[in-house]
Design brief:
Layout: E1 6-10, E2 13-14, E3 19-25, E4 28-33, E5 39-43, E6 47-51
Antiparallel strand pairs: 1-2, 1-6, 3-4, 4-5
Length: 60
């Protein structure tokens, strides 16, 4: 996932950098992490996506 555009919070923990892919199916969010071939299933209410509102410039 591109952490410059969106964050993925799962069970209150930022998992953005470790997520390879995700999709919704039957009220669940299915997440595959970069270090595992297993697809984990979470209740959709336990997964939040936060769109970043602005870009931060590290030079300022």
């Amino acid at each position: 996932m591109d952490a410059r555009k969106r964050l993925l919070i799962s069970n209150g923990v930022d998992k953005t950098d470790s997520v390879l892919s995700y999709h919704y199916e039957n009220g669940k969010c299915k997440i595959q992490y970069c270090d595992s071939p297993i697809i984990y299933s979470y209740n959709a209410g336990n997964v939040k996506f936060l769109d970043l509102q602005r870009t931060l410039d590290p030079k300022t």
